[in-house]
Every structure is written in C-alpha cells, then in structure tokens.
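User: quick one
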Amino acid sequence: MRLIVARCEVRYTGRLNAVLPNALRLIMIKSDGSVMVHADTGGYKPQNWMTPPTVIEESEGRMVVRKLKGDDRLDIEISEIVSDVTHDMGEAAALEKDGVERDLQELLAEQPHWCGEGLRLVRREWPTDIGPVDLMCRDADDEWIAVEVKRVATIEAVEQLTRYLERIRQDPAMGACRGVLAAQTIKPQARTLAESRGIACVEVDLAVLRGEREPELTLFA
Amino acid sequence: MRLIVARCEVRYTGRLNAVLPNALRLIMIKSDGSVMVHADTGGYKPQNWMTPPTVIEESEGRMVVRKLKGDDRLDIEISEIVSDVTHDMGEAAALEKDGVERDLQELLAEQPHWCGEGLRLVRREWPTDIGPVDLMCRDADDEWIAVEVKRVATIEAVEQLTRYLERIRQDPAMGACRGVLAAQTIKPQARTLAESRGIACVEVDLAVLRGEREPELTLFA
DNA sequence: ACTTAGATTTCGCCG
DNA sequence: CGGCGAAGTCTAAGT
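Assistant: Done. Structure below.
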C-alpha cells in the first residue's frame, strides 16, 4: 500500500464529471489497483476514487488512473509532495460478519413459529418469476404463508412482499396465500401500510432466536 | 490526519458483530473523528470503520472507538506498530459534481419535449402529499403528464411514480394523468413493469440534452 | 431530531 | 458477464 500526502487537484470524468480544487490530501493506492483520495474530514468516503481493475500511469507531478475497461478516468495533478511511503502488508483475512439478514433468515427458517403460531417451513428462497420469497410456510390449516425477512423493514419491504403476493396468488392453489413481514425493526409507516394490506408484522429479536435471551412477555401481565 | 500501519485485530459490535483477524492494516483517523481500517486490497471500502461523531480512547496496544450516541463500538487490538504519523492537512474544499440526477432534471425541465412530443413544463417538483413529482407537464391535448427522473431507473422508480400517479389521479381534474419514466439507463425489469402499468419509458443522453452530441436516429434509416 | 431519496452508491450472489 | 437485492450502506436535504 502506498500512502502519498500531497497538495493536489483531482478531476474525475466518467459517469459524471467532478473536480477537487488544489488542497492537501491523502492519496491511497492499494496493491489491487484501488486509488482513493481522502480529505482530513468527511468521514468514511473518499472525496474521489477509482475501483479496480485500473491502469495507473505516473509522471512528473501527475498521475492518471484509468479503468481497465470503459472511459472512467481520474486525473491527479500534484503540486507538492509532503510524504510518500509504501508498505508491504501481505494478505489480510476478510471480515467475518454475523447478524446480517441472511443469519436472521436462517434462524427463522429453523424456527418459523416466530412468524406465526403453528407455522412450518416449506422452503427457503421460494422462487417466483420476479424473485425469490425468503420463506414459504404453511399454517395449521395448510394455508400458504409468504414471509419476507428484513433487518430493518421499511415501506419498500411491504411493496416487495406485495409484489410477490400478487404473483403467488395468481396460482389458484395459492389464491389465499397470506403475507408476513418479519424484521428486527419495523418502521411505523411500514407497519401501517402492511396492516392496511392485511400483511402481518412480526418484530423478532436475534438474541431470542438464538436462545440467548428470554422473549419479552406482555409488559403488564 | 493520523496514519497508523499496524498489525491489529479489530472487533465491531453494534448493528451487527464482526471480527477482523490479526493482520497488517492501515488505520486512518481523520480530524473529524472518523476511523477507518483498510487492508491493502478490497478497494474503496474500509474493512471496518466508525463514522463521526465518535469518542476515541487510546491505551497501550489498544484503541476503543465509540459512537458518541449509541452502543456502536470498534475495538482495535494492536500487536505491532510499523508506522505512526500525523499530518496537518487544513481544510480541503469540497467536491464539485456535474451530471447527477438534479442536472438531468434541470435539463429535462428546459427541454421537456425529450419526455414526449409536444410536452410543455408546468412545474418542477410538483408537490403531492407523499412527495414531489420531478416534472409536471401537459401535452398538446392539455393532458397532464407526471415525469419521474432518474439516472438509473430500477423497479423502485416505477413503484415511486405509481404511488404518485395514484395520488394525482384522485383529483378529478387530473384523473387522466399519464406517467413517464425518464432516465439515462432503464433496467429491463423496470421497463417491463412500467409498460405493464401504462407508464412510458424514455432513455435520455446527457450529452444530447446539452447539445454536445447529435441524437441517435434510427439505425437503419 | 427524524425521514426520505440519491449515490461515480459498492458489494455479493446467482443466472 | 449482467441483473438484482442488501448494506453496519453513507450522505445530504427537507420537515
């Protein structure tokens, strides 16, 4: 990884055009060809960048980064170099995440009763022609239930599930299929829209699903 | 800006849990409190990070970054420091962009005929109770046309325009309002859904709108 | 303070 | 390789 602290002006042309006026910034060049231009503020995001695969040309006071395919182009004009160091970092193992939507879906697939009493799983990722339904279940009366799983459920999740239900119900055998929206958090507006469309809402707790915590019972029992 | 190259192990707990095994990485700390952990590959995105506002505690071989509000927490355990430098960068002027959705909307507002023959603009950002329609126009027959502008139009853009049309048509005077989806790129599924709902699709070219390029005519005229 | 919509979204999976 | 959906999305703007 190469770290250059320099006074520079940066131009990006490609999907749009963008200009960074001359100022002191960090230019980070990774060994995979990624180039990022960071200011000392602005958090997280580089002010300008190019993702691999790239071709980097360097000449006196100038660096041109091109995308291997396409017209994207980053022009860095360097007027003063404060520091320029390179570090060999070797391989860094990838990030291991836990608690994303997929984990939630897996846990609910194992314990579908959290989505509704007496539910049993028929299939995960039930295919429709507009995409897969997260969980397809049947209840004690053998009625079909389509479950959409989200970490945070917004109005869009309700629209998504509505589209699926529309398609599923076209099959006469599943004309009575109901919808359930299961999420760690359900936005109030999403809940309102869902209920107005007859879609049930279930807020689930990851720790409870894992048996690490008791489910909260009625507050004033 | 402080740049630390170090062998470290990083744990994030908050919205989810994530672990980065011990390896050589760059720890970037901006003066606004942003903390990013970058590997030498992986482009653009830090492997782990915390956006401001943060509180940073540092002790021997350990750094704890907490969000000022909330339970988010980054634990960096440092086993070896290769380099640790700080640079005063001052202020860096912001990025100036050109070619984002707003520019597209402005250009189409000036030349609404690209959205349909004989169209004239009534108003940009036409207000409805669920948000503003990008462009509201009338055609040669004085019929209303609601235009949704996107850089890249997905199925969500169609849903958005559909919601607007639903509301607009509740007004008896606008009961026949038509919808047009205008974008630089329209995804196939979005086009299919739009057309099945009677919404017209128009792909527009920024360079053509600016008169920098001739519109492509029929290929085999 | 909270919500909504855009982004050079990026990223990963699956066809 | 393209399309689609998730993301610790992030970020800016509006209410």
